[in-house]
């Protein structure tokens, strides 16, 4: 997560080693969203002339016509057009046999171009022919272009979607640009014309003969340079100030209070929110992040009366999470919401699992371990105590929850000394009661798919004897708390009349949207504008689009300025991409 | 106003310059700093200081080991500043021994001191001004080890300076070997290696690449060492392969491709090595394309010319790479001489062996006009490169007959060769002329009028064997199927004396071509008789000289062929028949163990005994008397001469009355 897209070269080479079980195409074209624009992965069984035969997973093409005249020419297109977000697209064709005359054409054509022809002969069709080595640019007469090709040769066809040009390679040698000013949405195409002609395609599933990585690196460097050199108006070009503000607002937004204060001291950047207010949010965030949702709800009700009453969706989200955390054994049921105040055993433990949680991704005591390590380095001890900056210590939490007995630290060993059968039954009952309440609550809400599936997923956990190992076990991962935490934090900020999203995150999501728009507008440069860490935003959690930044080590508020360096580079990239993306779209419209 | 300033400069300078010669350390130091500040950035001040004769004092202060180290440092920095002045300034410094003094400092001061760095900077400035004072830096192992140590351990500035100095200094095998022995290859590998994924910065990589190229150029031994030198897990060629990639700065990619080229041409990497074929070659072809800056294109074209100069497979690959030919045709139109000559050289390499490529160069890219223009270029390097290109293309018989003729390429070529050109141009030009004369009959007349024969005859008198060969070769080609007056002119102009001199040439190829010229002169009956009528004694003497001398068999074969030609003449036969010595030799050669000499002798005998010509009976009798008949009969019985049996039989059949 900290890699931030730098050093892509090494990442790629590492990935090549383990290519057996990795989709090479995803590595070649990481910015392509295949849900929207699938990559060509084979020849189309439908989009071809009848004289074309396909075999070997629709990668091998052979000619099965008479092959008497050029009227017997036959072509086949790939299953999908080339997505612009590839940036640089490339495929290779190995000539298995040149057949009778070797009248083979390799190239590109638009949807609907006549397939009873070789690529290049018609409008919106482009080809390089083996018999004479000529290139055909939407015309029946070719231009001298390259060498001829025949049995055993590997011909590559590359499409530069930034410049809209096309080049070919022969046996790994770049032959130079063949076509310029290509239209968008072209399909890889091959055409054959005489009996015995057989060619195999490699759309990237196998390593290429030509070093396409080299050209990808070049385009990436070029795009980076274009971003760096993009001219900005003077008032926007004051990076230092803009960056400081971005970093500071980010820290404040997420309640890294002490870090924000330290940063403010170091840079003189003013903090606009009241410190106590930040700390309140921070406290609530930490409760959510440690899985203690009930306490978080309680604190929210107390500090921001009216918020949860007004935002039923949010409350539902929190309650759902609380249910999950109950399964997890991290949330201690307590007198909250409409539930009665029950005496409880106080040991945060799973009510279901009877087995050891060896497979749990994060041991529940992680936060305790960190607690000792990450004490606030800047604020003095008395302040720390008073403001309860450090989460999970019993003393500061207790006052929030006066009716609850002091909680003992969770041990991580769910099968504690208490009576299993008794405790378990009681817990399950409490949970079922909570579930019923939750269900009732959902009935009052608008019945949208999102709420429904969230509830179903949460309830389904009960069906497994070991929920952590179940197909829905992902819900129990601590990382899932982030989305809830962010939603609550945003709601609190909005409730207080502040921005619900931090500028840096707005900037990143804006840039990401712009890149999507560029992809849809066939601007290939979107492939090479590096945005940090896609994985954080498009995972299974359905998290909000804003990006959750975590400290690489603890997610805590380290309170030291040294940490900022990490965020800093990120912000620079984001801002660059933001402005650059905006500039491109302006130029486009 | 202007006058006043100068006046004030001189006035104000006097006082502190006097202080330079003081014995008070403080005063000297103050004066030095004032002087340093006054010369920085002002070429006028630099010249003035040098003219005032202060340099010797500065050198003295710089070299004084027992003085205040600050004085030495400031003096060195001042010298360094002066060395950044005009070319005249630098030359003056070198004349006064600055380079030597700086090298002396480098020998004694510890590495890593400011003084060492300052002297390296100064020395670099001096070396960057051609001609660099190469001899100031002796190839001593101790000194070179010290310098390579700086390239490994010194500050970034010191490293860059040392490497730049050495890259200029390394101009021959002695320097190459010395640097290699001092461990320069290891130091270079370290400079070229990436730090993690970050490539080396351009300021570090460029001098290192230049030094590596200088060390490997035409040096098989050093190239071999470079091939096996590692930094981390990568050898130098592998490091270079990383640097030729498309995302590297253009000068770095250019430098790296050049190094791979030099290592290949020195014989350390084969032509089919992937680092040559997929590393250097595509990089150079890419750097020749239209989008690149002109200076890069020029160097890339010239380097590619060197890369593909001899290997046909590389020529064919280059010819299809990245529209190289179009790129080169475009570079020819660039204004700079460097670009033009690079492109011509590259075309020359591409067309060296492959007829198909030559055809494409001429037909597709209409190069001939540019070649003709190039031969008229005011820049000598462009003229030479154009002639090289013409020479390469002139290997195509088809082009000689068509395009060459259409563009009268002989005209500018003859013009160039008659303007007392340099040896190199003369060699390539006369080589081209050889090819032009081969099939170029329509141009022979005008070329003769321009004094081609005289020029070629003069070439045969040159001390350089290559020029003598080209001269006589061209004459031979010119005489092939020529008119009699042309032949006469060649003979008159060359003179028999020169012909005998050439027959005694140290270069066998020259002798061969001289005899070839004689053969061509003595062909067709009328010409034979006419020439023998005039030059019989000289020709016969020439033949005898060769037949009697200790020449290789192929030379003697040529001489026998000349005899055969003479034997084909009507009256000329008599010159042979009258010479008993020659006839006895003929008998000897018929029995010679060397098959081709037997055959040649048989050819002579056959011509002499041919019946139906005047006096054939008398000749047959005379030859039978001298043993030719017997020799022929013996030859027929020899199993090793089976392939000659038909010819022997034909010859024997002529002796009808005597058998």
From TrEMBL, chain A:
Coiled coil location: none
Q: SUPFAM superfamilies per the record?
A: Concanavalin A-like lectins/glucanases (SSF49899)
Q: B30.2/SPRY domain location, by residue?
A: 21-208
List, alphabetically, the SMART domains matched. CRA, CTLH, LisH, SPRY
- Matching InterPro entries, A to Z? B30.2/SPRY, B30.2/SPRY_sf, ConA-like_dom_sf, CRA_dom, CTLH/CRA, CTLH_C, LisH, SPRY_dom
Q: Where is this region: Disordered?
A: 356-377, 401-422, 535-560
Q: Which domain of life is it from?
A: Eukaryota
PANTHER family given in the database record? RAN BINDING PROTEIN 9-RELATED
Query: Which family, according to the similarity comment?
Result: Belongs to the RANBP9/10 family.
Q: Please state what the protein is called.
A: Ran-binding protein 9
Q: Which organism is it from?
A: Leptosia nina
Automatic annotation (TrEMBL), chain B:
Read off the SMART domains from this record.
ARM
Q: Does the keyword Transmembrane apply?
A: no
Provide a GO biological process annotation: proteasome-mediated ubiquitin-dependent protein catabolic process
* InterPro entries noted in UniProt: ARM-like, ARM-type_fold, Armadillo, ARMC8/Vid28, HEAT
**Where is the protein situated, by its record's location annotation?**
Cytoplasm; Nucleus
Where the ARM repeats fall, as residue ranges, is: 53-97
Q: Does the keyword Cytoplasm apply?
A: yes
- Assigned keywords, A-Z: Cytoplasm, Nucleus, Repeat
Kindly list any coiled-coil regions of this protein: none
Q: Which domain of life is it from?
A: Eukaryota
GO cellular component term of the entry, any: nucleus
What is the protein name stated in its UniProt record?
Armadillo repeat-containing protein 8
Q: Which organism is it from?
A: Leptosia nina
């Amino acid at each position: 997560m900290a890699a931030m897209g730098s050093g892509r070269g090494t990442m790629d080479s590492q990935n090549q080693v383990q290519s057996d079980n990795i989709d090479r195409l995803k590595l070649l074209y990481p910015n392509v969203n295949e849900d929207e624009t699938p990559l060509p992965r084979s020849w189309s069984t439908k989009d071809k002339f009848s004289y074309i035969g396909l075999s070997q997973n629709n990668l091998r093409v052979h000619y099965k016509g008479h092959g008497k005249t050029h009227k017997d020419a036959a072509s086949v297109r790939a299953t999908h057009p080339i997505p612009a977000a590839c940036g640089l697209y490339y495929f290779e064709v190995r000539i298995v046999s040149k057949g009778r005359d070797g009248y083979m054409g390799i190239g590109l054509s638009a949807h609907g171009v006549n397939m009873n022809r070789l690529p290049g002969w018609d409008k919106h069709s482009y080809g390089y022919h083996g018999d004479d080595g000529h290139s055909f640019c939407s015309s029946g007469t070719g231009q001298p272009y390259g060498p001829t090709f025949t049995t055993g040769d590997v011909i590559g066809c590359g499409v530069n979607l930034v410049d809209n040009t096309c080049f070919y390679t022969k046996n790994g040698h770049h032959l130079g640009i063949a076509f310029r000013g290509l239209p968008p949405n072209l399909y890889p195409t091959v055409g054959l014309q005489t009996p015995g002609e057989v060619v195999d395609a490699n759309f990237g599933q196998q390593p290429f003969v030509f070093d396409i990585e080299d050209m990808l690196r070049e385009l990436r460097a070029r795009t980076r340079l274009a971003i760096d050199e993009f001219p900005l108006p003077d008032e926007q070009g004051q990076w230092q100030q803009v960056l400081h503000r971005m970093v500071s607002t980010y820290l404040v937004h997420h309640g890294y209070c002490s870090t924000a204060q330290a940063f403010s001291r170091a840079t003189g950047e003013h903090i606009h929110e009241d410190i106590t207010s930040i700390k309140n949010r921070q406290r609530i965030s930490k409760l959510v992040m440690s899985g203690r949702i009930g306490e978080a709800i309680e604190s929210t009700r107390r500090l921001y009366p009216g918020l949860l009453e007004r935002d039923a969706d949010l409350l539902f989200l929190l309650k759902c999470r609380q249910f999950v955390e109950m399964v997890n054994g991290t949330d201690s049921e307590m007198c909250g919401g409409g539930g009665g105040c029950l005496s409880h055993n106080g040991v945060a433990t799973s009510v279901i699992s009877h087995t050891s949680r060896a497979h749990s991704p994060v041991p529940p005591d992680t936060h305790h371990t960190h607690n000792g390590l990450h004490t606030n380095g800047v604020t003095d001890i008395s302040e720390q105590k008073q403001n309860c900056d450090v989460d999970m210590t019993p003393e500061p939490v207790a006052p929030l929850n006066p009716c609850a007995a002091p909680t003992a630290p969770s041990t991580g060993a769910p099968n504690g000394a208490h009576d299993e059968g008794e405790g378990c039954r009681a817990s399950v009952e409490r949970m079922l009661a909570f579930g019923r309440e939750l269900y009732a609550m959902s009935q009052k809400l608008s019945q949208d798919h999102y709420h429904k599936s969230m509830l179903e997923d949460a309830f389904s956990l009960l069906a497994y004897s070991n929920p952590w190992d179940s197909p829905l076990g992902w819900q129990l991962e601590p990382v899932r708390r982030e989305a809830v935490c962010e939603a609550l934090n945003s709601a609190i900020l909005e409730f207080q009349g502040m921005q619900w999203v931090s500028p840096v995150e707005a900037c990143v999501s804006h840039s990401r949207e712009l890149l999507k728009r560029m992809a849809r507008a066939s601007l290939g440069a979107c492939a090479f504008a590096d945005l940090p860490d896609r994985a954080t935003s498009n995972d299974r959690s359905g998290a909000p689009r804003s990006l959750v930044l975590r400290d690489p080590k603890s997610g805590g508020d380290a309170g030291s300025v040294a940490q900022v360096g990490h965020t800093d580079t990120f912000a620079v990239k984001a801002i660059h991409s933001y402005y650059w993306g905006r500039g491109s779209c302006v130029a486009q419209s | 106003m202007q006058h006043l300033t100068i006046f004030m400069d001189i006035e104000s300078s006097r006082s502190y310059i006097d202080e330079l010669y003081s014995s008070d350390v403080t005063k000297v130091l103050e004066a030095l700093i004032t002087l340093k500040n006054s010369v920085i950035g002002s070429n006028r001040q630099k010249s003035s200081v040098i003219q005032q004769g202060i340099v010797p004092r500065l050198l003295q202060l710089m070299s004084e080991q027992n003085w205040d180290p600050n004085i030495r440092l400031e003096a060195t920095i001042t010298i360094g500043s002066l060395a950044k002045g005009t070319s005249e300034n630098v030359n003056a410094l070198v004349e006064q021994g600055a380079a030597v003094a700086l090298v002396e400092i480098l020998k004694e001061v510890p590495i890593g001191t400011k003084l060492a760095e300052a002297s390296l900077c100064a020395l670099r400035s001096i070396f960057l001004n051609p001609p660099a004072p190469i001899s100031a830096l002796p190839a001593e192992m101790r000194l070179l080890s010290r310098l390579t140590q700086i390239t490994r351990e010194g500050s970034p500035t010191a490293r860059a300076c040392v490497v730049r100095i050495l890259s200029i200094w390394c101009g021959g095998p002695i320097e190459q070997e010395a640097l290699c022995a001092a461990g320069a290859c290891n130091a270079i590998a370290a400079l070229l290696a990436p730090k993690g994924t970050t490539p080396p910065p351009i300021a570090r990589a460029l001098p290192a690449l230049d030094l590596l190229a200088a060390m490997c150029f035409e040096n098989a031994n050093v190239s071999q060492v470079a091939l096996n030198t590692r930094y981390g897990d990568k050898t130098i060629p592998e490091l270079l392969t990383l640097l030729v990639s498309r995302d590297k700065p253009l000068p770095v990619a250019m430098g790296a491709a050049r190094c791979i080229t030099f290592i290949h041409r020195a014989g350390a990497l084969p032509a089919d090595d992937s680092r040559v074929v997929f590393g250097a070659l595509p990089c150079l072809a890419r750097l020749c394309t239209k989008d690149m800056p002109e200076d890069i294109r020029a160097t890339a074209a010239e380097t590619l010319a060197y890369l593909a100069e001899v290997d046909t497979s590389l020529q064919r690959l280059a010819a299809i790479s990245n529209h190289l030919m179009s790129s080169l045709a475009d570079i020819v139109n660039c204004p700079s001489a460097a670009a033009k000559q690079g492109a011509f050289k590259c075309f020359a390499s591409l067309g060296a062996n492959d007829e198909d490529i030559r055809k494409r160069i001429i037909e597709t890219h209409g190069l001939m006009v540019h070649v003709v223009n190039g031969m008229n270029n005011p820049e000598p390097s462009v003229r030479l490169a154009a002639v090289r290109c013409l020479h390469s293309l002139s290997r195509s018989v088809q082009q000689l007959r068509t395009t060459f003729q259409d563009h009268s390429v002989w005209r500018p070529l003859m013009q160039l060769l008659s303007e007392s050109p340099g040896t190199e141009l003369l060699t390539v030009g006369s080589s081209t002329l050889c090819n032009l004369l081969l099939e170029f009959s329509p141009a022979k007349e005008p070329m003769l009028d321009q004094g081609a024969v005289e020029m070629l005859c003069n070439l045969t008198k040159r001390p350089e064997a290559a020029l003598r060969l080209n001269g006589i070769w061209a004459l031979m080609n010119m005489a092939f199927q020529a008119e009699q007056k042309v032949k006469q002119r060649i003979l008159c102009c060359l003179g028999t004396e020169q012909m005998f001199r050439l027959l005694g040439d140290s270069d066998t190829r020259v002798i061969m071509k001289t005899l070839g010229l004689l053969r061509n002169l003595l062909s067709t009956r009328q010409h034979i008789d006419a020439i023998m009528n005039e030059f019989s004694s000289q020709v016969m003497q020439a033949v005898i000289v060769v037949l009697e001398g200790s020449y290789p068999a192929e030379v003697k074969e040529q001489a026998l062929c000349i005899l055969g030609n003479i034997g084909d003449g009507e009256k000329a036969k008599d010159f042979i028949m009258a010479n008993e010595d020659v006839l006895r030799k003929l008998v000897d050669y018929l029995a010679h163990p060397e098959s081709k000499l037997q055959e040649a002798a048989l050819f002579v005998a056959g011509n002499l005994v041919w019946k139906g010509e005047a006096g054939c009976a008398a000749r047959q009798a005379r030859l039978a008397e001298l043993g030719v008949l017997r020799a022929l009969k013996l030859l027929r019985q020899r199993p090793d001469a089976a392939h000659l049996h038909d010819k022997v039989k034909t010859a024997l059949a002529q002796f009808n009355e005597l058998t």
